[in-house]
Write a structure and sequence with these properties.
Blueprint: H1 9-25, E1 29-32, E2 35-38, H2 40-50, H3 53-71, H4 76-96, H5 102-129, H6 132-159, H7 162-174
Antiparallel strand pairs: 1-2
Helix pairs in contact: 1-2, 1-3, 1-7, 2-3, 2-4, 2-6, 3-4, 4-5, 5-6
Length: 176
Amino acid sequence: MKEKKKISPLRITMTALFMAMNIVMSSFGIPVPGGHLYLCDAVICTAAILLNPMEAFVVGGIGSFLGDMLFYPLPMFVSLVTHGLQAAAISYISHKTFKDKPRLASGIGVIVGAVIMVTGYTLGKIFIYSTLEYAIMKLPYEIAQASLGGVIAMALCWRQGVRGMFERYVTKYAER
């Protein structure tokens, strides 16, 4: 019989912390000609590499939903689905594939997550704004945002050692 894992207060706290960071990072963007780049994808990808798929979905989906509800409510349901699926996919691939090569698994997860995010937002914008042209016009910004977020997350988790610290401190103490 499979043993159920307990949900620890530390895991709940880390999920809430990443969700708050997601909301904050979705409140402002880096202005670029013709649009904005939002850094919430860096938080979503980082959280997804560190957390399990359900926690990642909460950070990505619900965090983005709340951020949009506060600052720009029109695409909030698109954000819920798109960022939620993006985070869950990254987390699942990072934790369940290539156990002997976690960096490769995270990289593949981030790429799959970027495709989910770009596709989801493009389809969502077609539905919300009722125009394919607008969605195509914003496509380069979606690609740039997903790429920037993925690169930042991979650099934080693997180059700067955030994943190692997370595993050493959070995962270790959450299992007590």
